[in-house]
Amino acid sequence: MSALRKGGRTKRRRANRTPVARRPTIRFGGIGDEAAPDLAGQIDALDELGWNELELRTVDGAWIADLPVGQVLDIARTLRKRRIRISAVASRTGNWASDITDDYGPDELEQAALAFRAALLGVDRIRVMSYPNGTGLPEAEWRRRVLERMRDIADGLYRGGQLALHENCAGWAGSSAEKALDLIASVNNPGLRLLHDTGNGIPYGYDGYELLRRTVEHVDHVHVKDAVGGGADTRYVLPGEGDARLAESLRLLTARGWRGVWSLEPHLATRPHEGLAADGRAESGFVAAGRALTALVEREVLPHSPGWRLVPGGLVLDAPVPRQAERPEVLSDAR
To answer: Which of 74, 111, 277, 323 is most buried, taking the most CB atoms under 10 A from its CB?
Structure first.
């Protein structure tokens, strides 16, 4: 309503009233240890960018599941005081350092420890992968074992009010839309969703944009990176300077009216699978990558995204997405 009634008289609202600040529809954030090993350095990097979404993988070189509970509580208090929201936490479950033939016991212990710590941190999203097959199991057996473990993980997290996010990285369902859709359909649990990494197609040899196009309706969280080369010759670059079709992927998300976090993982200094970690200096490239992401969005995303605008910390959707752009074709090959 444009008017208020009081005592039978009508009072017009002031046209120049300061608008209430809106929380971004798409929020910009990043994986903290890509910027610095310590929490203070990770917060400083976010402050430089004016962002307040932090994804936690390691702090002081330790994975979150391994941190003492007292330190986790300290982290939670610090981030609340700084008004920084935790968007997700990372597990090692099913990642590049594991194998589908490994004993599942350590993963069960990590999931329990991480779920407890995530609850203390006030976050309900936990990153997982779907297990490499370094020992050469037949495809059908590899799939069977992955699905069995993923059902257990999704069920345990869902019962605790949490969500497993499967990343398109190492593992059975990591580089194929068909397998990712098969994973979602076969597990058939709302406790499992997809995490799409925009740059992982370069090192793993597939088109990341096409993977996103075919799986986007299941994507709950996004990692932003860009790269050139391929395979062992992959080199990570600033967002918009590589061959990952990053701008196209971001436009696909805005075209759908997607909501969530674009979490920066530039890999310019920190690459856990190579044993490389940022030391907190500017050379980590995290802040430069964040600024490059913002520039890319302004230059190549917003001009093609009607209804969206840039605000501190992300993007706001001011108007409904045009009907014809709401649901691009998604081809489901799930079994």
So the answer is: 111
CA distance 213 to 332: 11
Determine what percent of the chain falls in helix, strand and coil, rounding each to the nearest 5. Answer: 40, 25, 35
For residue 134, which of 169, 174, 175, 96 has the smallest C-alpha distance? 96
- Is the separation of the CB atoms in 197 and 167 below 8 Å? yes
- How far, in Å, CA of 22 to CA of 147, rounded? 40
Residue with tokens 């939670």: 76
* pLDDT given for residue 327 in this prediction: 37
Three-state DSSP state, 169: strand
Torsion sign, CA atoms 327, 173, 275, 112: positive
> What CATH number is given for 24-319 in this structure?
3.20.20.150
Instruction: Write out residues in the chain with pLDDT < 70, as ranges.
Output: 1-22, 270, 274, 276, 279-283, 322-335
Closest to 268 measured CA to CA, from 244, 296, 239, 232:
239
Query: Given the structure tokens 């969280």, which residue do they identify?
Result: 221
User: Which token pair is 291?
Assistant: 């600024």
CA 25 to chain centre: 15
The pTM of the full predicted model, rounded to 2 decimals, is 0.88
